[in-house]
Specification:
This protein is of the alpha/beta class. It contains five helices and seven strands. The protein is globular, with a radius of gyration of 16 Å.
């Protein structure tokens, strides 16, 4: 996929106020400081599109970006640890959960996982929640450039083995690095293929 245009559209605190659900939508989410903004900027090839910060919890709203006038990329607040109040964390959780359950054009959730770490309980619980709710998702391992490829592979395998304990079928996964653009073609190719399938299905139903 060639991204010719990527621009920020709007930020909202309520899923009901998000843009009209007329296009496929891909939501990016992960633990705080997983490298979400850097990955979004790498995928869109725009260094400052998503705001990066050394402070976890920078993203506090549902941020919509319009890609190629054809699909939405959504930057969601992170889950897990962030230096915010308990009330704020609860508010974020309600906002995210409502969005994930009720956004009609949500095509896939990109669950970002730090490839430097072994399986984290908060990540496994979040993916289990998506599975229970029937929300489609893929696993996107980030920061693969920060360690050896063998170490990354070991952690990926551990995640897959852990999930096999409770999942009948494992989700698709991608290994990425915002630094050297690893996984960019594969992830954008997945989006392009999925959009094509949706268009074909819409044509068949017409």
């Amino acid at each position: 996929m060639l991204i010719q245009d990527a621009r920020f559209l709007t930020s909202n605190s309520r899923a009901e106020d998000c843009p009209a659900p007329t296009m496929p939508e891909y939501a990016f989410i992960g633990r705080s400081n997983v490298g979400k903004s850097s990955l979004i900027n790498m995928l869109t090839n725009q260094k400052g599109l998503a705001k990066t910060s050394s402070q976890p919890g920078k993203t506090q709203l549902i941020n919509h970006f319009l890609i190629n006038e054809a699909w939405y990329l959504v930057d969601l607040p992170g889950y897990g640890y962030a230096r915010i109040s308990k009330d704020a964390r609860a508010k974020w959780a309600r906002m995210i959960n409502f969005y994930l359950r009720h956004r009609p054009n949500l095509t896939c959730v990109m669950v970002l996982l730090d490839s430097r770490h072994t399986p984290q309980a908060v990540d496994l619980e979040f993916m289990d929640q998506l599975g229970t709710e029937g929300v489609p998702f893929v696993m996107v391992f980030t920061k693969a450039d920060k360690q050896s490829s063998s170490r990354t592979s070991q952690n990926v395998v551990q995640y897959l083995e852990k999930m096999q304990e409770t999942w009948d079928e494992l989700p698709q996964y991608f290994v990425t690095s915002a630094e050297d653009k690893m996984g960019r073609e594969e992830l954008l190719g997945f989006v392009a293929d999925t959009n094509q399938q949706l268009a074909a299905q819409a044509g068949a139903d017409a």
